[in-house]
Structure formats: C-alpha cells, structure tokens
Amino acid sequence: MEKAPDVGELTPPDRTLMGPGPSDVHPRVLRAMSTPLVGHLDPSFVEIMNEVQELLRYTFRTDNQWTIPVSGTGSASMEAAIGNLVEPGDTALVPTNGYFGGRMQSMAERAGGEVVHVDAPWGEPLDPADVEAAFDEHSIDVFGFVHAETSTGVKQPGVSELTDIAHSHDAYVIADTVTSLGGVELRVDEWDIDVAYSGPQKCLSCPPGASPLTLNDRAMDKVLSREEEPRSWYLDLSLLEGYWGEERAYHHTAPVTNVYALREALRLVAEEGIEARWERHLDVAGELKSGLEAMGLEMNAPDEYWLPSLNAVRVPSGVDDGAVIAHLLDEYDLEIASGLGDLSGEIWRIGCMGYSARPKNVEYVLSALADALEAEGYDTEQVTAAPSDD
Ligand SMILES: *Cc1c(COP(=O)(O)O)cnc(C)c1O
C-alpha cells in the first residue's frame, strides 16, 4: 500500500440504544474512561481492583471471595465459567429455550463435556418438573440455565427451586445473568447459585470489555482440583487467581480502562442502591409495556415471566419487522432489535437497561414506534377506536 488511507475523524451517530445491548453508557462512565492509565500492577490499580471486587459482590448479592471481572465480553466470562467448571467426561445439562442455551452447549462440548438438554419452547421458561426429570434420567455434573434470556425476553422464575433440584443431585449450577445483573432481582447467595457470569454492557450501562464472574468456594474447589487443565490458558481460573487473588502477580495485562469504566458503573449501582435499581427497571419497563399495549401491541411473554430489561413484543400481522427497525434507526437514531432463532420475524426486542431505563427514553421509543408503525399502515389508535360491545 503506497498511500496512507484517508480516513476521517471518528464521528459515530448519536444513537439512543434500546436494543439487547450495548445500552446507553452513563456520562460518568465515559468520563472515567478518559482518565490516565496506570500500570495493571500499580499499587493504585491494586486498590481499584479491590474496590471493583467489593462493588461486584454487592451487585451480585454475594459474599463469594471469587468475584472478578474477566477480560473480554460476556462470552468470555461465560466461557470462563463453563470451561473451568466442566471437565472432560462431565455431563452438562443445558436449556433449549433460547439462543444462549445453544452457546452454553457449544462451550460445554468444547470443554470436553457431554451435553444433555432440558427442553422448553423459545419464549417460555424452564419447568422445574422437566429439570427434575432430566436429573432423574442422567447423571449430571453441571446444570446451566439462563436467568434472563435476551433472545426471548423471558425471565426464569423460581431460581431457588432449580438450584435445589441440582444440589439434591450433587450438581453445580451456573447461571447466565448477563441481562439481569444490575437490572432485575438477582440474589446469588440466597438463591444458592454456584457460579454466575454477566456482562457490563447490558443493565450496568458500561461499554463491553470487563465481564463480571462470581464462584462460590464449592465451585472453586472443583475448579482447583481438576485433573486436566482447562483448554483455555487465558481463561484458566487457577492462573487468574494469581492476579485477582492474594498474590497480584502478572498473568495478562488487565484492560485498565474497562476496569475504570466498570468501577464507575458499579459505583452508580451502589449510589442508587441495588434494590431501588431493580425497582426502577420494573417501573420504567412497566411504562414501556403499558404504552406498547395501548398501541394494540402484545408482549411475547406473559407477566409471570416478563423480563423488564428486555421486552419482546409481537410483530403485528402485515407489518414488516425489518422496515420498522430501519425506520427507527434512520429517522430517530434509535436502536431496537429483531427476533432471533425460532422467534425470528415474530418479535421486536426492546431493551430497557441501566442508563437507558429512563422515562425519557420510553417516551421516545413509544412515539417513534407509533410513527414507524403508521408508516407501515398499522393503526396505533385501533384499541381506543374499537367500538365497544355495550
Ligand atoms: C449478551 C449476552 C451474552 C454474551 O455477551 P457478549 O458480551 O455479547 O459476549 C450471553 N448471554 C446473554 C443472556 C446475553 O444477553
């Protein structure tokens, strides 16, 4: 290449992010990311690491010593959980009711595990009776489930019941809490979850890059007494212990700026109070839901397992889901997403996460969506305009 490429200054569009993540980043988090770097072993950074770990324990509602941000996106903390806990020859039970159960399966297989399934349709939670039946049929070592399934807008209810079933069969429980941490009630210790992983760019409203993970001592004992090393060197928790544990020795260069960002995002959680934050997500997403229903739209999940941080809305017949998404992006700089897998073409996915979970954003989504639907010939007044029976 002879000439230097003529690439202009970076000017990304000013989007409002109401999709499945990333969510809008809080200005304080963006500011934290523009502060100077220190070394990843600098005494001041060691202090920051301790603070992030404390804040993560608070947010996960756990006393687990083993609570760290994994370098990488949510899939990195996911692979750290699965790749360390599942040993070659172990049997892992994974769900089939959404996109991320499939990813759990791939990771468990790559770790050398045998995979068995607990089935439920996309858009529905797991039935504890089916989980129990799977445990009766197979000898299961690790049970993974998705607390907040971002592909379907379903929140798994009755988590304690699921962990009880697994523990009565001496299995370990891994929970995907990527779209619940910091947005939806989640109590790692009280619900007896052995391992939970998450991501920063959903309800924590932080850019992707350093992803929360917590393991209790029981799970960590299994990890530290493995016969065979995990297949990933980078995500080997017995090695990461050297950096995040007592020793604080070099393993890899931590993404310093992402750790700053996560610290500030978690400080915002602590300032608001975790329970108040869950409450806010319920209230603001509740406004979104009522507004959608007032337009004659239907939520995909019934109230018992509706996920406030990710609202799956049925696409009305005759409306092109992609045209609406494009209209919102082009005319309103507003991001929402389409359905995946079995729900492709059937739902829109509207996130209501962290800093994006504000009344202002909800009003914006509702008015922009009404306009986009009308452009598609859908009558948003139909509910109120419908003649009554009496
Ligand atoms: C987003 C997401 C992931 C993966 O996170 P990435 O940051 O995209 O790697 C895993 N599980 C669920 C439920 C998610 O929503």
Automatic annotation (TrEMBL):
<dbReference type="Pfam" id="PF00266">
    <property type="entry name" value="Aminotran_5"/>
</dbReference>
<dbReference type="InterPro" id="IPR015421">
    <property type="entry name" value="PyrdxlP-dep_Trfase_major"/>
</dbReference>
<dbReference type="GO" id="GO:0004760">
    <property type="term" value="F:L-serine-pyruvate transaminase activity"/>
</dbReference>
<dbReference type="InterPro" id="IPR000192">
    <property type="entry name" value="Aminotrans_V_dom"/>
</dbReference>
<protein>
    <submittedName>
        <fullName>Alanine--glyoxylate aminotransferase</fullName>
    </submittedName>
</protein>
<keyword id="KW-0808">Transferase</keyword>
<dbReference type="InterPro" id="IPR015422">
    <property type="entry name" value="PyrdxlP-dep_Trfase_small"/>
</dbReference>
<keyword id="KW-0032">Aminotransferase</keyword>
<dbReference type="InterPro" id="IPR024169">
    <property type="entry name" value="SP_NH2Trfase/AEP_transaminase"/>
</dbReference>
<keyword id="KW-0663">Pyridoxal phosphate</keyword>
<dbReference type="GO" id="GO:0019265">
    <property type="term" value="P:glycine biosynthetic process, by transamination of glyoxylate"/>
</dbReference>
<feature type="domain" description="Aminotransferase class V">
    <location>
        <begin position="39"/>
        <end position="339"/>
    </location>
</feature>
<dbReference type="GO" id="GO:0008453">
    <property type="term" value="F:alanine-glyoxylate transaminase activity"/>
</dbReference>
<dbReference type="InterPro" id="IPR015424">
    <property type="entry name" value="PyrdxlP-dep_Trfase"/>
</dbReference>
<comment type="similarity">
    <text>Belongs to the class-V pyridoxal-phosphate-dependent aminotransferase family.</text>
</comment>
<feature type="region of interest" description="Disordered">
    <location>
        <begin position="1"/>
        <end position="25"/>
    </location>
</feature>
